[in-house]
Amino acid sequence: MLLPNILLTSTPGVGKTTLGKELTSRSGLKYINVGDLAREGQLYDSYDEEYECPILDEDRVVDELENQMSEGGVIVDYHDCDFFPERWFHIVFVLQADNSVLYKRLETRGYNEKKLKDNIQCEIFQVLYEEALASYKEEIVHQLPSNKPENLEDNINQILKWIEQWIKDHSS
Ligand code: DAT
């Protein structure tokens, strides 16, 4: 059976992992957290002192994922989206949260002042949405609210319906 590939992207802390994990348990699609994948395989090429985080070796990440992506049925979660091949994804969801909500979530994560401010700014200016629109066809890019549990439930139901329809459309 042919299955779609889905990209979940957003500023960190907005809710990709929460949605991705819940979706995978209810859809049977595989879930890949690119941050975890990079950590496990040490797919880094340097370290960012200012943001206190390693910098991804994007080419190695793409090589690592290529086979699974061509098989289909993968939900990819990452806070960046312009280095994945456009052909990989059948739909792209950009999650969004209100500033006050996101601020609290990032504060809880213990982000330093600069990282916190920059991420809030990233959300205010819809950087990930712009990046998704620049990287994928506009008609496959969708924004989803991710402020409260009801949003999560609505998003899951909407995406499950989309998956079901996609499978029907591609079986024959
Ligand atoms: P991300 O993967 O984008 O970094 P996450 O899934 O780890 O974000 O979520 C960050 C925090 O926000 C986590 O404590 C769970 C919470 N959260 C996510 N989506 C939510 C929602 N729709 N309603 C309430 N809390 C949510």
Descriptive overview:
The protein is α/β, with parallel strands linked by helices. The chain has a single domain (6-37, 72-165), classed as Rossmann fold (3-Layer(aba) Sandwich). The protein has helices at residues 16-27, 34-41, 58-71, 99-108, 113-124, 127-135, 149-169, and strands at residues 6-9, 30-33, 44-48, 53-56, 74-78, 91-96, 141-145. The strands form two sheets. A five-stranded parallel beta sheet has the order 2-5-1-6-7, with helices on both faces. The chain has a two-stranded antiparallel sheet with strand order 3-4. A hairpin with a 4-residue loop joins strand 3 (44-48) and strand 4. The chain is globular. The structure holds 2'-deoxyadenosine-5'-diphosphate. The site of 2'-deoxyadenosine-5'-diphosphate has 14 residues, from helix 1 and helix 7. 2'-deoxyadenosine-5'-diphosphate is lined by residues 10, 12-18, 105, 146, 148-149, 151-152.
H/E element string?
Answer: EHEHEEHEEHHHEH
What is the CATH architecture term? 3-Layer(aba) Sandwich
The portion of residues forming beta strands comes to: 15-25%
| CATH class value | Alpha Beta
Question: What's the helix count?
Answer: 7
Number of E-state strands = 7
Give average pLDDT, whole number.
Answer: 96
How many domain regions? 1
The CATH superfamily is known as P-loop containing nucleotide triphosphate hydrolases
First and last CA, distance? 10 Å
Topology-level CATH name:
Rossmann fold
Shape: globular
The description of the largest β-sheet is:
5 strands, parallel
**Rg (CA only):** 16 Å
Question: What level of helicity do the residues show?
Answer: 40-55%
Bound molecules: 2'-deoxyadenosine-5'-diphosphate
* Parts with pLDDT < 50 across at least 5 consecutive residues: none
